[in-house]
Design goal:
alpha+beta, single chain, two-stranded antiparallel sheet, 2 helices
């Protein structure tokens, strides 16, 4: 999907930005979705991580990875 509409957002004090509703809707980004963010060629690229379905079993390694990512996010947020 290619979206040609240019959107501008302001970076807030804690580095927060609001993704415009039309982009969130078009990309299926809902509250609680985890986005992977990386820098590439002077741009930021955000990619939604696949969600884990309720009741879906994950292995111990995947569970530890998820917990580590959440902990890192909380430390960076504070």
């Amino acid at each position: 999907m290619t979206m040609n509409k240019l959107s501008k957002v302001r970076v807030k004090r804690k580095g927060q930005v609001t993704i415009p509703l039309d982009l969130r809707s078009a990309l299926g980004i809902e509250e609680g979705v985890v986005l992977e963010i990386k820098a590439k060629d002077g741009s930021l690229i955000m990619t939604p991580e696949p969600s884990i379905e309720p009741g879906k079993v994950v292995g111990e390694e995947e569970y530890e990875k998820i917990i580590a990512e959440l902990d890192k996010g909380w430390r960076n947020w504070r």
